[in-house]
Amino acid sequence: MKRISFALGCIYGLVAITDILFTFNGYEQGRLFSKPLLMIVLMLLYAAETGIRSSFSKILLSALLFSWCGDVLLLFNGFFIAGLLAFLSAHIFYIIYLFRIGAGVKGALQFQPLLGIPVMAYWLLFSALLLPYLDTLKIPVVIYATVICFFWMLTLNLFGKTDTKTATLFFSGAGQFVLSDSVLAVNKFVYPFEILPVVVMITYCSAQFLLVLGSVRHLRNSNII
């Protein structure tokens, strides 16, 4: 990792800790500055590592940019659907990125489709839990849940298509993204509890960082950067 990237990684960690502390203490005014900074610093880190020269890096940068839009929109009341659409767009870009890795090479899920059963079971059970609480938001939330679980399943298919460490970074990042969004949904629709927003931010910050590391490793191993 380059020195500038290491420095940006440290800054990202500090901003993440700051935002988590603001979240824990309910300091929403402070979060107007800390939360938007998260993806800005991560985009700078990714740009420093990759140069944003390949189509892969441009796709992942687009995912981070839409994530930034989602972060900002969800800071304000009344913008939940807009934030949901922004993160849905981010996941679509992540999915496009994953589809392009090892094109024509079969992954673990293609060799053994039964590996996807736990992810499908999670989607079914969690959707069933949320549906009674969603009212008019049933369709958009279920669509979002479907897309993010599909994203998670695609990272499972990376095993066998790329090296194990890269696949693990993507799989762990996507899994934490699913966990983050699941906890957010529980807190918003089912049972609001003061510690849950903190869990959301811890898993979200970790998820995005792992996905960036996975992409950097993939591009480096593929001699794209």
What does this structure look like?
It is a single chain. The chain has 225 residues and is mainly α. The chain has helices at residues 3-25, 28-50, 55-73, 80-100, 108-111, 117-134, 138-156, 164-190, 196-221. The mean pLDDT is 95.
Notable features of this structure?
225 residues, mainly alpha
Quick structural gist:
This protein is mostly helical. It has helices at residues 3-25, 28-50, 55-73, 80-100, 108-111, 117-134, 138-156, 164-190, 196-221.
Query: How widely separated are the two ends?
Result: 12 Å
Estimated radius of gyration: 17 Å
Low-confidence stretches: none
Shape: globular
Structure summary, number of beta strands: 0
Total number of helical segments? Answer: 9
Element-by-element helix/strand order: HHHHHHHHH
Biggest pleated-sheet summary = none
Fraction of residues in β-strands: under 5%
**Percent of residues in helices:** over 70%
- Nearest-integer average pLDDT: 95
Secondary structure category: mainly alpha
